[in-house]
Amino acid sequence: MAQIREGKFAPLRIKLLWTALFFVCFMIGRYIPIPLLHGTSTGTSTAGTGLLNAANVATGGNFFTPSFFSLGLGPWMGAAILWRFLFIGRIARGRRIPEATQDRARYVLMVILAIIQAISLMSTYKIHDLDFGPLDGTLNAQIVTVVILSAGAIVVAWLAKRNEELGLGGITMFILYQIVITAMRNFEALPDLTATARYEGVLGVVVLACVLVVLIGIFLGNAELRLHVNKVSIDSGFTGVSYLPIKLNPAGASPIMYGLALIAIPQYVVHAVGAVIPAASAGASGFLSVWGLSNPVGFTAYLLLLFGLTIFFGLFTVDPRETAKRMKNSGEYFDHVPPGDATRNHIRWRVVVLAGLSGLFLVVLTGLPLYFIGTYPNLQFLLTAPQTLMILLGLLWMLYEEIADTTLGTRYSFSLTGRAGRVTA
């Protein structure tokens, strides 16, 4: 008897054990302090603090308690999206650059972002001198701190990558952990926050947005548009069941997570420049005072980025160019649509429309409540609740689908008997 139990259909318990191992490593790293940093975070504006709070939830980091894993997945997520935003990935594919070389280039970009974020974080804390080596004691301490924080970001990215290969959820588990921790830290203050929000008249907006996010996330989480596909290799009696599925929300919660990771990068860069170049500190402070979710400039930039990323992830998920190419090579076509460029445009237009509607949904229900952060900064936990719920539902849905795929292989077994011509399944 031969049973399929390997590869993609590995037993769920094995994946859970791997995930538990990586998760324990992640938790341990979050509680390893940076010995050279002490005191509380200083030098960050109110606008910047609000943005960092939101980015921490979306990337699994923690800028307000310095530790080995304080940078979280921010550098990795920023590098992943910048790689495609800058069209480096498309250039690499056009020049047929090996995948291994592309991976190394992405890691270099991630390390650069990690160093920038490490400098930004370090500059907000007091630092002990390290009287070791030929350099100045303060400079020695700064170099060691940046190296430790950057190394922590690399380890977190490695853990997420290994969890994606061997465990469940990939980066999902680390972000879920940060969401739970943030909720627990604010649970005691929740009654007071709710009372204040009710008094200020914003509680109804938050509750309505949360309810709509949950309802739409649950009932439309797996809804899809099915485009009828004709296949020349299939008998005409079965052509009615052939289709190309496109989810109504093809991007899921990814635009929120990656949007917060990206919108925080300018803050990290400017803050780091101000720390390294004292002459630029005044200009850096001016930029940081307006670049945040509580300021119209940062708020508008985030909403535009959120909408743009929704369309970007929709096109990335479906990939009209590759889909049209595959359909042409396999003899598939849509009704009244010629193969090739016409098919690609046909798919792209529908993806853009669906992703645009999804983007409007994200902007209205998860983005607009952030408008009140500038007026009520103490209510940030409640005002960011809709987007946190959207991230939570999106990650749980992804985890559910991965578990379903993993257990699918355990439902079937194949056996070969000794009798000629008899095979049972």
From TrEMBL:
Please state the span of the N-terminal signal peptide per the UniProt entry: none
- One Pfam family of this protein, by short name? SecY
Origin organism of this chain? Answer: Gryllotalpicola protaetiae
Highest taxon, organism lineage? Bacteria
Q: Provide a GO biological process annotation.
A: protein transport
> What is stated as this protein's family in its record?
Belongs to the SecY/SEC61-alpha family.
Q: Does the keyword Membrane apply?
A: yes
Q: Which residues cross the membrane?
A: 12-32, 68-87, 107-127, 139-159, 166-187, 199-221, 256-279, 299-318, 351-373, 379-400
Q: What is this protein called?
A: Preprotein translocase subunit SecY
| Matching InterPro entries | SecY/SEC61-alpha (IPR002208), SecY_dom_sf (IPR023201)
Instruction: Give the UniProt keywords, A-Z.
Output: Membrane, Transmembrane, Transmembrane helix
GO CC, alphabetical: membrane
Entries under SUPFAM superfamilies matching the protein = Preprotein translocase SecY subunit
**Record keyword Transmembrane present:** yes
